Amino acid sequence: MRLSKLLMIAIIVVPLVFGAATSQAQQIPKIRVAWVLPQGNWPSVLWEKKDVMRHVGKTYNVETIHFQGTPLMITALAAGELDIADLAYSSFALAIENANMEDLRIISDEVQDGVGRYYSNEYFVRKDSPIKKIEDLKGKVVASVGAGSAVDIALRAMLRKHGLEEKRDYTIVEAGFPNMKAMLAEKKVDLVSGALPFSFGLAEVGNALFTMKDALGGSTQLAIWTARAGFLQKNRAAMVDLMEDAIRAAHFFLDPKNEEEVIEICGRVAKLPPSAFKGWVYTEKDQYRDPNMLPNLETLQKAIDTQQQLGFLKAKLDVKKYADLSIVKEAAARIR
Q1: Higher pLDDT residue, 110 or 26?
Q2: How many Å apart are CA 275 and CA 296, to the nearest integer?
Q3: What's the whole-model pTM score?
Q4: What topology does CATH give the domain 122-216?
């Protein structure tokens, strides 16, 4: 009789316990994070190092999603199919003005160009080219990765500084970074835009005429993590945990003593041999990433002002109005 009662209790209680556990697991938010460039964008690699993280799988789950470009991220954000978008400064401003995302918020650093001795995107001419100064580009053809992109804006800004305007003084054609080396070597264009890791190949056939740092007059907050205000408000606790995990992983990737494992991860994600990343990735030969993932709003403002001055934005945009750094600051404070 006693055994029968115990069995009955077990039949009733055990499903309740497992049901509660299942319900709790279902309540953990899944945060969808976008990236474009393997290794170049933090989300492509950070969650490959889960053993340094404390919260993933416990207070939040994460899905990292590869996009071909930032315009598709903006569409996904608008449709509620993405939570964190990894946007260049130019895409961020266009999302607010063109897609009417007034609730879009800057939440953390992704990458900064030309900080101190760190790498700055380069613009190459052929080694045998007669082009020695910017003015020599008059009447020439230059290659950009797309009108209004961050790299494109710096290119136009530099040529405007030297009195050159598109169509009147030079022609722009569009091409992807992987195609730039062949276009330059085959003399299809006179100048190409470079970015890591493609700049290494371009240096084999060309010389850098100028850099993004030259063009924009200093360092630039090149890319940022962004999310919509409603999502941040609803998932604040999970977001602080996610950012803490991201910062812990960033510290691992930025520590030189971890180079062997870091280049193995980068190679696996990018589908390249690890040796392709040896000696430069996440060092001063690479672009700068803030260890605590804090963006530089001043250099971001300057870049977006240039974007507006070149006619890609109708109105000025106050960056601070669209920043919410409370989450990343709280996350970083936990680690100190």
Answers
A1: 110
A2: 32
A3: 0.89
A4: D-Maltodextrin-Binding Protein; domain 2 (3.40.190)
